[in-house]
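ARCHIVE CARD
CATEGORY: sequence design from structure
SOURCE FIELD: tokenized fold
FIELD CONTENT:
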């Protein structure tokens, strides 16, 4: 049934047939994600609710925006993408997130939390101005309900004078368990309270914004969801509604139900045995905190993903999970540092983008000793455009007072953390998810000082920052050495400040930079600017001015020109001029 499903067939199906469809969709999601990786438990909990939405509403005329978007797999299966579903999150395949470019059923691209209500309001306002008639729905999890952007959107509902449906999918989780006062408030609404008046009184906060609150219902009960959505569809003609439903994350797969956090997103088979930088961060911070009671660890709803579980367990009074509130986390770190603490803010590169203003104003303009540990830096792979961490070197390098470090491997990362303990200024350390290589060299970490890994003595020098780039540089140097072309390789472990002493003393006439970041504003651009009047030839290998799609990490790097073969090819071409 799922293979040739259409909206017409869904609407003409009996409840029993829809339940069979739900089971088929659930099994398809499990088998595909187990093979290719992806978001598992979040999608399993959404199956019935998504089928009910497609049964009641008329997509793509009606519009649905999935907050974050990683829970859209059933929506993709029901909207003509079954035959492509096995390619999800693969290079050239369909995205694991909603994509307007992919289907008319995806009306708005998402990838970061908290954007759905604003987007729904904007689409609804455009509808009203144009005199059109369709429903607009935002589907948002309780984890995203911690994000301040939601309340900025709520605050403008009356001003915009429009009608939308917000479906609050409450499963008690973001990636980690949901935290904070709003989560506690939602728990009150979800309880079986005998005094209905008490529940109604609590729900009035949403009515203050202009929503009619309706809840709590079982989001995994297909019949109940169809009945309730059918009723609300009529109400949307005259009012905005928040429909509060409770779902089970990982529904239908016992292991996911019991382990919703570790099965939120899983890697494709065959990626075991990798040393993750996050595990090094967690272990080292625990070790450092034993002797320094000023160390505090801060995260935004990603405790285990960032390696901080042990720290949170051993030092709960010095552990802060603010939920999906990256801007708040940044200011929290700045203010604690202003009071003499030593905060470590662990965050994915792609989510750090949300904190830019606070990094500039709150941390760096006050020159406060906050260490930002930037995980998943560089291309992160299968999650695609919204999750590729290829901008952090560019947007951080322009900020005064900020030192930016890039370790060459997990061992150097550990020593950079030791260095950070006594570094009394803003510091960002960026690193990829996985560490596969440990280099022998272990020179002292000194701010702004690089490390020569290979002295060539010829006319070529490769300056590489980060494990992936250094691996490419050393491989290229080895290949060229077989052709008697000597190439120096430098571990440019500080992007800011640059090692101006080393740069000014370079004897090589051709300088090649390699980085896992976009070229504009990145490491190569900084080196090129510094050497602009030196007479040296500078060649940069970096990602172009494009959004990088989903795919394997090596596949993406090679496709966009970051390969040892391209470096070798450039040097050989230069030799033959």
């Amino acid at each position: 049934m799922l293979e040739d499903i259409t909206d017409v067939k869904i609407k003409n199906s009996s409840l029993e047939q829809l339940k069979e469809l739900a089971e088929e969709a659930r099994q398809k999601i499990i088998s595909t994600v187990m093979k290719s990786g992806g978001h598992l438990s979040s999608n399993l909990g959404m199956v019935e609710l998504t089928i009910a939405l497609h049964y009641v509403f008329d997509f793509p005329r009606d519009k649905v925006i999935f907050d974050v978007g990683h829970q859209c797999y059933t929506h993709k299966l029901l909207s003509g993408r079954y035959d492509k579903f096995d390619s999800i999150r693969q290079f050239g395949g369909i995205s694991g997130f909603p994509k307007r470019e992919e289907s008319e059923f995806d009306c708005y691209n998402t990838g970061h939390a908290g954007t759905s209500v604003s987007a729904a309001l904007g689409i609804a306002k455009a509808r009203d101005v144009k005199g059109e008639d369709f429903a607009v729905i935002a589907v948002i999890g309780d984890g995203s309900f911690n994000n301040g952007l939601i309340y900025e959107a709520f605050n403008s509902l009356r001003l915009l004078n429009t009608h939308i449906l917000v479906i609050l999918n409450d499963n008690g989780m973001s990636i980690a368990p949901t935290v904070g006062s709003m989560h506690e408030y939602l728990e009150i609404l979800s309880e079986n309270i005998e005094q209905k008046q008490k529940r109604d009184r609590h729900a009035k906060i949403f009515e203050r914004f202009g929503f009619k609150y309706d809840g709590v219902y079982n989001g995994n009960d297909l019949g109940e969801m169809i009945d309730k959505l059918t009723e609300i569809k009529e109400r949307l003609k005259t009012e905005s509604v928040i429909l509060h439903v409770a779902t089970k994350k990982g529904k239908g797969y016992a292991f996911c139900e019991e382990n919703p956090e570790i099965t939120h997103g899983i890697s494709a088979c065959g990626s075991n045995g990798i040393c993750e930088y996050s595990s090094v961060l967690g272990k080292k911070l625990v070790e450092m905190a034993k002797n320094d009671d000023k160390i505090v660890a801060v995260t935004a709803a990603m405790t285990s993903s960032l390696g901080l579980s042990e720290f949170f367990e051993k030092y709960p009074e010095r552990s802060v999970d603010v939920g999906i509130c990256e801007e708040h986390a940044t200011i929290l770190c700045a203010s604690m540092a202003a009071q003499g603490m030593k905060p470590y803010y662990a965050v994915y590169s792609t989510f750090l983008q949300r904190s830019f203003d606070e990094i500039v104003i709150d941390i760096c303009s006050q020159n406060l000793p906050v260490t930002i540990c930037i995980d998943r830096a560089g291309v992160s792979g299968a999650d695609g455009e919204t999750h590729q961490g290829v901008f952090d070197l560019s947007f951080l390098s322009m900020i005064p007072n900020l030192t930016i470090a890039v370790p060459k491997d997990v061992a150097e990362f550990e020593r950079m953390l030791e260095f950070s303990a006594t570094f009394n200024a803003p510091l960002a350390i960026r690193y990829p998810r996985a560490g596969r290589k440990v280099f022998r060299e272990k020179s002292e970490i000194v701010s702004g000082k690089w490390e020569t890994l290979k002295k060539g003595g010829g006319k070529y020098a490769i300056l590489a920052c980060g494990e992936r780039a250094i691996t490419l540089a050393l491989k290229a140097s080895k290949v060229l050495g077989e052709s008697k072309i000597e190439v120096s390789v430098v571990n440019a472990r500080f992007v800011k400040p640059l090692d101006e002493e080393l740069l000014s003393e370079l004897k090589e006439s051709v300088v090649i930079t390699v980085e896992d970041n976009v070229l504009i504003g990145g490491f190569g651009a900084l080196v090129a600017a510094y050497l602009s009047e030196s007479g040296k030839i500078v060649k940069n290998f970096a990602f172009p001015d494009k959004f990088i799609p989903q795919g394997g990490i090596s596949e993406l790097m090679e496709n966009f020109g970051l390969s040892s073969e391209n470096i070798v090819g450039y040097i050989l071409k230069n030799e033959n001029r």
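CARD ANNOTATION: Residues 114 and 524 are 34 Å apart (CA to CA). The chain has three domains: 2-260, 275-435, 451-575.
SHELF: design records, drawer C
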